[in-house]
Amino acid sequence: VELAIRAGDEVGCDRIDELTLAAPLVLPEQGAVQVQVRVGVADEAGRRAVTVHSRPDGGEELPWSQHAMGVLVPGVDAADIGFDAAVWPPAGAEPVDLAGFYEARAQDGFVYGPEFQGLRAAWRRDGEVFAEVALPEADGREADGFGLHPALLDAALHASVFTGLDSDERGGLPFSWEGVSLHASGASAVRVRLSRAGASAVSIAIADAAGAPVASVDSLLVRAVSPEQLGGPEVPVGDSMFRVDWTPVRGAASPAVESVALVGPDTFGLADALPDTALHPDLESLTASGLVLPDVVLIPVAGVSGDDTAGSVHDLVARTLGQLQVWLEEDRFASSRLVFVTRGAVS
User: Fold this and answer.
1) Which of 87, 174, 82, 192 is nearest to 129 (CA)?
2) Distances in Å between the alpha carbon of 237 and those of 16, 48, 161, 232, 243?
3) Please, what are the domains in the chain?
4) 227-261 pLDDT tens trace
């Protein structure tokens, strides 16, 4: 949110119309990441697309991973954020006991370091939650370097667990923001009002101690996240899964198998080398035969050469993909191995 608003300021779009988070940006234990924020050209209404990508620092050969996408729009005049923060705590609000709050969150899997433990007090009143949030003193001195310090905004969201969100979403992370405006910058301590904006969403109003607007969010949708989604790969995958490679096998003994089947035209004369191999025109006929499925199923993939067109290559790839999909959809193949056989793929 901070990055998107800052980028929007450069082009006169100081309001986030929407921002959807596609994936968490997981920081490595060592090293750094490069972050790219891109703002598109304006449409007739002045709206601009915005995206946030990252890649490992030093990984110029790796593709960018997308973390967020949304729309920026020209802002409106600073509006009434909907509550009088100068009256504090709000009249009629009941205090919430925060003893052990962050310890309980840690037991749920959310361990906040001292910089992010900014929730100081909270109150409830008629479906609303009011919170007092502040940065640690050291981070407070850095608040001037941000529109809205990310740790301050994050701490303001901690009180959302008291708004009555669906139980599955109370441990959730921000997923989709709508109508985000920054009215003042540099705050190190704020007063917050949160209210329900749906079963899994809250609206947020943030003001300073004098009641002046700091930021407002029409709707923040949260979603539950598993620890696995936050793990991140130990080694960036990049394009490695898609690299074309060829490993010659010389002098290796063939693995012992009980049975082999050959599917499709015997382009390479495999049946001559494997006289006991059963022949089938396609995978569907193999499964329909009612026979015990073999240990290994061979599918010849004839290469293209000469004057064959790119369309022939496309057709061959499409047929091979179709065979692979049939294989993966058939539970009976779980104990068999599929082998695509080709030759002449490399010089």
Assistant:
1) 192
2) 32, 31, 36, 10, 11
3) 2-75 (3.10.129.10), 94-230 (3.10.129.110), 252-341 (3.40.50.11460)
4) 666 655 444 444 445 556 677 666 655 666 678 89
Distance set, CA 265 to CA 30, 98, 280, 281, 312 (Å): 53, 71, 9, 7, 17
Residue ranges, the chain, pLDDT below 50 = 167, 233-240
In which residue are the tokens 């967020």 written? 68
Q: Which of 202, 212, 162, 157 is nearest to 182 (CA)?
A: 212
Question: Which among 257, 264, 309 is positioned nearest to 285, based on CA atoms?
Answer: 264
CB 289 within 8 A of CB 253: no
The pLDDT tens digits of the residues spanning 54-95 come to 999 988 888 899 999 999 999 766 567 778 888 999 999 999
Give the whole-angstrom CA distance, residue 130 versus residue 93. Answer: 8
Average pLDDT of the residues of the chain: 85
